[in-house]
Amino acid sequence: MAKRNKLEIIRDILRIIQKNHPIKPTPLLRMSNISSSRFKGYYSELLEKEFVKETYGKNKKITLTEKGYRYLEKYSAIINFIDEFEL
Amino acid sequence: MVLMTGRAIGNGFGKLMSLGMGSEILYSFVIIVCSLMIYFGTKELYKLTSHKGIKYFRLSFLFFALAYFFRSFIKIILFYFEISELRTILPIFGSVTLFIFMYFSSMAIFYLLYSVMWRKWKSKWIICYLHIISLAIAIITLLFQNPLIYFLMNILFFIFISFTVFISFKQSKKKKHSNLYAIYLMLLIFWIFNILDILIPNFLQAFQLFIYLISLGIFLLIFYKVIRKTG
């Protein structure tokens, strides 16, 4: 399997959250298929960019925000654009 | 006195609106609008990804828009005062405008190049270097009022950029996208013609319409490629 780039990893994490909405941090880490230290980095970036939000009930759970959905919606346009101009 | 001033303004306006100046304004307007639409049209993609390539691609077109704005500004002043050298009539104002134009022009080309090369050029000082080189180009333009120096400087600029683009194309895995490098190379060549048109008046006058039409075509083609991909 080819090494995923940053944009692909973010897309995969967001897709996992979308499919298992809302999801706890531990299963999300497991399903993301990356090391926990890299996951922490990506997860803080997702929180910082407001692609995901944490909700606190009995347990901490993660859900997608509107920006997160927008990223998934725009992902193929982003990749096509980067590919077209070799950015 | 008032009548004479009014007549002078009227004559100036008439000159401004003549066919030559009209096409000049239209040419700059279309390119500025195209560049700004590329800049604003890719804003969301950058906000979502913070991708470095997208960042420098966008900034490059912002610099193109600014450079064309100052270019048309210089052209209008040259036309209005019927002079061939901006600094002959307005020394400080002319020098500052020319300096800004040259700086933005160089930055536009360098940022476009960097948008393709950022993965290979890893030094954290690279942006600094690009600013310094652009400033140096602008300063040389001001210090040496010699067409030969301008010509040589642009030839060197062309050799450096086209060599880098060629190396990047050779290393590119996506040979099917080779037309992108051809477009960038054309953009560079015609951008240099646009610069020489300002720096060495009357040098390319016979080919002006041709240069304008090809430059417009290149910008419209890039704009079309951007909207086709971004929607």
Tell me what the structure shows:
The complex is a heterodimer of chains A (87) and B (231). With 87 residues, chain A is mainly alpha-helical. Chain A has a single domain (6-82), classed as Arc Repressor Mutant, subunit A (Orthogonal Bundle), CATH 1.10.10. Chain A is built from 4 helices and 2 strands. Chain A has helices spanning 6-19, 25-32, 36-48, 66-84; strands at 52-56, 60-64. In chain A, strands 1-2 form a two-stranded antiparallel ribbon. In chain A, strand 1 and strand 2 (60-64) form a beta hairpin. In chain A, helix 1 (6-19) packs antiparallel against helix 4 (66-84). The longest helix of chain A has 19 residues, at 66-84. The model of chain A has no long low-confidence stretch (mean pLDDT 92). By secondary structure, chain B is an all-alpha fold. In chain B, helix 6 (91-117) runs antiparallel to helix 7. Chain B has one domain (21-230). Classes of the chains: A mainly alpha (87), B mainly alpha (231).
